[in-house]
Structures are given as C-alpha cells and as structure tokens.
Design goal:
The chain contains two helices and five strands, in the order βααββββ. By secondary structure, the chain is α+β, with helices and mostly antiparallel strands. It has one domain: 2-Layer Sandwich (YaeB-like fold), CATH 3.30.2310.20. α1 packs antiparallel against α2. The longest helix is centred in the middle third of the chain and has 19 residues.
C-alpha cells in the first residue's frame, strides 16, 4: 500500500472547494459527501496507484474523478502518492497548474 501525501497547493484547493460548497449550499451535507468520496479515492489509489487515468501531455501524472465533478491529480514517487491538485472540473482547464 502506498502512502498518500498532499502538496500544500492541493490541500489548499481541496479545503477551498469544501468551504465554497458549505457557503453555497448553506449546509455541510455536500462537503461531507466530497470528504467521503475523497477518502475512498485516496484508499483506492493507495492500493491501485496505476489505476488513475494518465494525463496525456504531462508524463507521470494521473488523475481520478470524484463525484463526476472534481479531479484529483497525482504522481507516483517510489511508495508515495503525491496529490498535486484537487480540481473542480468546471473551472477553465488552462488555469490548472501541476
């Protein structure tokens, strides 16, 4: 099993998304759903690191989809999965920096 490590940037984007949905919906229900799914995806890629889809133009970077709306981009380093970004799929992809 691989260890999961979030970059500061990825963690910031993740927390920002959770906060946005709490404020937008005036409820933590959807954010709790995101938390649960992210935890499940972390466990999944920790056990199956090559299961994520490869990013075609960035060698070594993969992603998994969360709730059909968010993307977790990651890189495999030895026995560590480094989470590079937590991305809202509705944002402009040209703003994505990995």
């Amino acid at each position: 099993m691989f260890e999961i490590e979030w970059t500061e940037k990825a963690e910031h984007l993740y927390l920002e998304a959770l906060e946005f949905w709490i404020n937008h919906n005036k409820s933590a229900t959807y954010s709790k759903k995101i938390l649960k799914q992210v935890s499940e995806k972390e466990n999944y890629i920790a056990n199956n690191p090559y299961a994520g889809q490869e990013v075609f133009d960035i060698p070594g970077v993969r992603y998994v989809v969360v709730l059909k709306k968010f993307l977790i981009f990651y890189r495999i380093n030895n026995k560590t999965i480094q989470i590079l970004s937590f991305w809202d799929g509705h944002k402009n992809p040209q703003d994505l920096e990995l």
